[in-house]
C-alpha cells in the first residue's frame, strides 16, 4: 500500500559532544523537490546521514516508503539514489569499474541510462576518480545515483564548489528527470538560487532544530519583508510581526502579507530565501511557527 509520505521522521535526535540534532519531525509527501537549508553546522549532513543509516541515532524513527530505514535498509536503498559530500568510491576506480560494481548491487541498475548520463555530462569513463575535477566527480556520482530508477534522491551539497554553468546543467537535468519520472528529491544546499530554480518546498534547520518545512511559494506569498525606521516600527501592530531584525537603526520585519501596516514604509518586498534565512537566524521570532 502506498503511504502518504515518502519520508516520515519522528522525534529524531542525535547527540554529539557539542551539538544536538534536536527532536526532528518531518514528513515529506511524494513527488516534491525539497531543499534543505541552514547555516554551516546547522545539522543538514547529520540529518541526511541518519536518513541513510550512515550514523546511529539516539532517539526517534525514520520511515522511508513507509518502512523503518534501519530494519529495511537494503530494501529501501534499492529505491534511493544518494550523493553524499565525499565520493565514496576508491580513487583508483573509473566509471567503467563503478558500473560493474553497481550492476551487482542494484537489481534495477541500467547500463544504458548510466552511459547516457555520462555522455550528457561529458564524463570520460576511462579516467580514474583521482583524475576527475570536483565537478566531474559530482556528475559521476549523480549519474550513479540516477541509474537504478530511484524513487527518492537524497543529495548532500550536489552543486557545492561547481561553477554556475555546471550547476545550471545539473539542476536542469535533475528537474527534467524528476518531471519525467515523478520522483522525490531531498537536497541540501547553501546556494539559494538553486532553490529558486527547482525547489517546491523548503526545510530549514537552525542549530539542530527544524524551524519550518513549507512550500516555497506559500512562504513567499504569505509573508512580506518590510524595511523601516524605528519610528515606523513603533506604529506597527506587534501581533502582525513574525520576525524582527534590527541593524544600525534599520528594522527588517517579516510580516504576514494580509497585515495592515503604516503606508509610509520605506521598502516593501517579497522576501528572498536569503532574507528568510537571515531573519530566522539573526532576528527575534515573535510567534512560535510559520503557519
Ligand atoms: N562525528 C562527529 N563528531 C562530533 N561532532 C560532529 C560529528 N559530525 C558532525 N558533528 C557536529 O555536528 C554539527 C552539525 O554538523 P553537520 O555536518 O550536520 O552540519 P551541516 O549543516 O551539514 O554544515 P555544513 O553546511 O557546514 O556542511 C557540527 O557542529 C559538527 O561539528
From TrEMBL:
GO molecular function: ATP binding; ATP hydrolysis activity
Domain ABC transporter: 4-232
Keywords, comma-separated and alphabetical: ATP-binding, Nucleotide-binding, Transport
Listed Gene3D superfamilies: P-loop containing nucleotide triphosphate hydrolases (3.40.50.300)
Record carries keyword ATP-binding: yes
Protein name: ABC-2 type transport system ATP-binding protein
Transmembrane segments: none
Keyword Transport in record: yes
InterPro entries per record: AAA+_ATPase, ABC_transporter-like_ATP-bd, ABC_transporter-like_CS, ABC_Transporter_VariousFunc, P-loop_NTPase
Pfam families registered for this protein in UniProt: ABC_tran
Amino acid at each position: 500500500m502506498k503511504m502518504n509520505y515518502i519520508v516520515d521522521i519522528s522525534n529524531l535526535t542525535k547527540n554529539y559532544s557539542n551539538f544536538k540534532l534536536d527532536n526532528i519531525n518531518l514528513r515529506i509527501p511524494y513527488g516534491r523537490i525539497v531543499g534543505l537549508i541552514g547555516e554551516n553546522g546547522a545539522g543538514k549532513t547529520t540529518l541526511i546521514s541518519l536518513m541513510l543509516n550512515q550514523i546511529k541515532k539516539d532517539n526517534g524513527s525514520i520511515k522511508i516508503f513507509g518502512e523503518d530505514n534501519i530494519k529495511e535498509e537494503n530494501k529501501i536503498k534499492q529505491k534511493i539514489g544518494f550523493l553524499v559530500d565525499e565520493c565514496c568510491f576508491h580513487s583508483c576506480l573509473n566509471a567503467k569499474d563503478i558500473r560493474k560494481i553497481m550492476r551487482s548491487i542494484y537489481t534495477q541498475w541500467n547500463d544504458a541510462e548510466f552511459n547516457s548520463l555520462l555522455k550528457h555530462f561529458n564524463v570520460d569513463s576511462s579516467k580514474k576518480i583521482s583524475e576527475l575535477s570536483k565537478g566531474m566527480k559530482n556528475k559521476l556520482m549523480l549519474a550513479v545515483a540516477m541509474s537504478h530508477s530511484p524513487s527518492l534522491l537524497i543529495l548532500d551539497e550536489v552543486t557545492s564548489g561547481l561553477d554556475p554553468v555546471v550547476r545550471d546543467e545539473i539542476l536542469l537535468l535533475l528537474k527534467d528527470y524528476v518531471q519525467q519520472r515523478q520522483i522525490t528529491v531531498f537536497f541540501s544546499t547553501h546556494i539559494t538560487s538553486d532553490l529558486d530554480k527547482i525547489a517546491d518546498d523548503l526545510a530549514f534547520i537552525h542549530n539542530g532544530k527544524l524551524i519550518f518545512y513549507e512550500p516555497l511559494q506559500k512562504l513567499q506569498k504569505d509573508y512580506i519583508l518590510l524595511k523601516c525606521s524605528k519610528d515606523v516600527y513603533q506604529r506597527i501592530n506587534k501581533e502582525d510581526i513574525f520576525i524582527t531584525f534590527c541593524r544600525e537603526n534599520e528594522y527588517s520585519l517579516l510580516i504576514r502579507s494580509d497585515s495592515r501596516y503604516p503606508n509610509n514604509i520605506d521598502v516593501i518586498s517579497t522576501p528572498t530565501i536569503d532574507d528568510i534565512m537571515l531573519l530566522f537566524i539573526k532576528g527575534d521570532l515573535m510567534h512560535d511557527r510559520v503557519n
